[in-house]
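Input structure tokens:
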């Protein structure tokens, strides 16, 4: 059995705060602070450039990738770290498109995170391809024989709706297409099984449920059947077969290494590596069970105590990730009032109050406090205040 009381103790959770926004930025694992400090004093300070070899900075993207592999149903040597998620979406999508020459259609849904759609739109323009965007429930019917790549985010960032990864991947394969999954809201939140689903490509970020810190690098996975054939358009020198030969022409490195682009963010990878220690000994089955327990309790509590809000997530836990959202016409002000009262969730336009439940550190006491505080704010109308209407740059 996973010891979730112990994993909770591994985080710095500010006193008086109930944190339900780990689906946007995970809290700091206490060990990350010391690990980064040690890296600065023992490695960067003392080793200088020799740290690339001596401290293993150069191989860190693969080593950290191997630790993430276990959490997404992938094997060793199949995942590599680096860049932002938007860039990894571009790399995976461009490589997948190149594996389906003659086909020009990318299919996604309108619940996808906008950055994924922007990247696909730009790539489609450059490749003279077509991006088709349908409603999430229409995806299956929209898989047609002209499809090149099905590109979906498994868990919807607003509603928490979870796609059937294995089923949709099988449908895409039947149509002769490839399936690319964005795991931003899945990795560390649900029991992802890329191998079992027979997916083709996957990408994800590490600053949400994996708690790598703001700006932590993204990951990319390629199914082994494609790893030596995939040809990314974004050809950087660290994805070259022999970067330090400084050849003028590009020759991809074997396997997943070709998905590297440039110099890895070593300090950020060090913080992420410390954050991944918390996952040692965590079973994904336990994680999923606890996530369902927390989200079910939250829905039940809010529906009983807050008639002013409407559930915006699937009621069936099997169709949900680890987040729950509710709608309120003045959602922004309500969320600001909630944050001022010590319960941090977030707001997503136009009217969504979003709450992430991270089994590693959230518990039923958090659920109870969040329900009680939301009910109080809605009942006493304290959210209806000018200071809660001022929109910040980042929401
Ligand atoms: C599903 C999804 N894709 C892409 C992104 C963009 O990631 P990044 O800002 O790291 O490029 C996010 C979050 O910001 C996301 O939730
Ligand atoms: N990456 C973010 C950032 O740099 C600032 C603020 C928020 C984010 C996020 O990750 C947003 C997130 N993808 C979402 O689901 O809304």
């Amino acid at each position: 059995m996973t010891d979730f009381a112990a994993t909770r103790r591994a985080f710095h959770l500010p006193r008086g705060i109930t944190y339900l926004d780990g689906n946007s930025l995970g809290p700091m694992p206490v060990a990350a602070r010391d690990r980064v400090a040690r890296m600065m004093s023992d490695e960067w300070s003392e080793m200088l450039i020799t740290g690339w070899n001596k401290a293993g900075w150069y191989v860190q993207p693969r080593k950290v990738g191997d630790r993430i592999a276990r959490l997404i149903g992938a094997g060793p040597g199949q995942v590599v770290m680096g860049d932002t998620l938007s860039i990894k979406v571009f790399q995976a999508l461009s490589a997948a498109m190149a594996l389906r020459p003659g086909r020009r259609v990318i299919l996604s849904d309108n619940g996808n995170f906008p950055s994924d759609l922007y990247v696909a739109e730009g790539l489609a323009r450059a490749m003279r391809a077509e991006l088709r965007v349908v409603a999430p429930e229409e995806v299956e019917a929209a898989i047609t024989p002209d499809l090149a790549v099905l590109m979906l985010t498994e868990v919807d960032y607003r509603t928490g709706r979870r796609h059937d990864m294995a089923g949709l991947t099988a449908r895409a394969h039947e149509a002769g297409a490839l399936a690319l999954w964005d795991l931003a809201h899945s990795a560390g939140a649900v029991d992802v099984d890329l191998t079992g689903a027979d997916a083709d490509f996957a990408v994800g970020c590490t600053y949400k449920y994996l708690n790598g810190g703001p700006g932590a690098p993204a990951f990319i996975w390629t199914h082994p059947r494609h790893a030596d054939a995939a040809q990314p358009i974004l050809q950087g020198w660290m994805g070259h077969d022999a970067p330090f030969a400084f050849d003028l022409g590009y020759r991809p490195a074997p396997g997943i290494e070709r998905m590297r682009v440039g110099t890895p963010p070593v300090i950020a990878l060090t913080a992420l590596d410390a954050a991944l220690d918390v996952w040692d000994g965590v079973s994904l089955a336990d994680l999923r069970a606890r996530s369902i327990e927390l989200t079910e309790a939250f829905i039940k509590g809010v529906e009983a105590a807050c008639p002013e809000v409407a559930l915006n997530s699937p009621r069936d836990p099997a169709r949900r990730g680890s987040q729950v959202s509710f709608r309120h016409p003045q959602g922004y002000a309500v969320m600001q009032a909630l944050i001022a009262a010590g319960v941090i969730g977030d707001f997503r336009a136009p009217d969504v109050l979003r709450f992430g439940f991270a089994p590693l550190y959230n518990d039923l006491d958090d659920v109870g406090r969040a329900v009680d505080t939301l009910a109080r704010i809605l009942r006493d109308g304290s959210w209806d205040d000018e200071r809660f209407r001022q929109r910040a740059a980042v929401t």
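The chain has a mean pLDDT of 97. The CA atoms of residues 293 and 364 lie 8 Å apart.
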